[in-house]
Specification:
Blueprint: H1 3-13, E1 32-37, E2 42-49, E3 54-57, E4 61-65, H2 66-72, E5 73-79, H3 96-100, E6 118-123, H4 126-146, E7 151-154, E8 168-172, E9 181-183, E10 192-196, H5 204-211
Parallel strand pairs: 4-9, 6-7, 6-8, 8-10
Antiparallel strand pairs: 1-2, 1-5, 2-3, 3-4, 9-10
Helix pairs in contact: 4-5
The protein binds 2-acetamido-2-deoxy-beta-D-glucopyranose (4 copies).
One 2-acetamido-2-deoxy-beta-D-glucopyranose binds next to loops.
Keywords: Signal
GO molecular function, one term: metallopeptidase activity
InterPro entries: MetalloPept_cat_dom_sf
């Protein structure tokens, strides 16, 4: 099971974050770069808009809704669409740091940890649930078997486009986009998301990956 790959990492840190690595097969081309305020730091990152109307950065990490992202956005330093640029533009490439180093590690006691080891999640709607349940539940089972101190709590479906603070809302791509993405850390102040292809493109190994670091 794919989860076993991550266990050495996990047991070292004894930390669970809702984390992600790329399952990106088709990287989006419409990319913007700029400085963004994160809970713990200001970073220069590159982002794109997902099909589901969210903002993703670092390849496949969901930041949150467009409104949440715009509140955190400080400035734009590069865009793949020059004609869209305002006077804010200064075109320099993103720092190597923000391209190469994925901020996957969370320090003990940091706010990115799930309180009580409980991860709350829900499906966007019943259609999403019926299409993705087999992969999501399979991945959660893999995590529960390997890391018993984490529990996943399923809440009732909710199709609020703004999501729910501190709760992972799972959405299905339609049509599929050939990558899966998810929010990275627990954050009680913004919506958390997982966006997946249907039909097995984001299968149990990939979704297991999306649930872990
Ligand atoms: C690129 O993203 C911007 C939003 O940042 C959007 O307005 C524009 O239509 C997108 N362009 C393409 C080609 O998708
Ligand atoms: C963007 O914001 C960052 C962080 O505040 C700052 O260091 C940088 O100089 C700004 N860049 C531009 C082009 O305004
Ligand atoms: C912020 O990040 C630094 C390391 O980059 C870490 O030492 C510190 O504990 C973090 N604080 C919080 C509240 O996450
Ligand atoms: C979602 O958030 C936006 C901006 O914060 C707000 O204008 C809108 O009314 C909200 N939508 C819903 C359905 O709550």
């Amino acid at each position: 099971m794919a989860a076993s790959k991550f266990l050495p990492l996990l047991s070292l840190s004894l930390i669970f974050v809702l984390g992600v690595r790329a399952q990106v097969q088709t990287p989006p081309t419409n990319i913007t770069t700029g400085f963004v305020r994160f809970a713990n730091a200001t970073r220069q990152v590159s982002w794109f808009y997902t099909q589901g109307g969210l903002v993703a950065y670092d390849g496949d990490v969901v930041f949150g809704t467009v409104a949440e992202f715009e509140r955190a956005l400080i400035n734009v330093t590069y865009t793949s669409e020059p004609e869209r640029l305002s006077t804010k533009r200064r075109s320099y490439p993103p720092s190597l740091d923000s391209i190469v180093k994925r901020a996957n590690s969370i320090f003990p006691g940091s706010s990115g940890l799930w309180p009580g080891g409980q991860v709350f999640y829900r499906y966007f709607d019943s259609d999403t649930e019926s299409k993705l349940k087999v992969y999501v539940e399979g991945a959660l089972k893999a995590w529960a078997n390997e890391v018993p101190c984490i529990s996943f709590v399923k809440l009732s479906n909710n199709n609020d486009p703004n999501g729910s603070n501190g709760i992972v809302t799972i959405k299905a791509h339609n049509p599929n986009v050939f990558y899966c993405s998810a929010s990275q850390n627990y954050d009680s102040t913004k919506s958390l998301w997982m966006e997946l292809d249907t039909g097995g493109g984001c299968g149990i190994p990939e979704v297991t990956h999306e649930w872990g670091m």
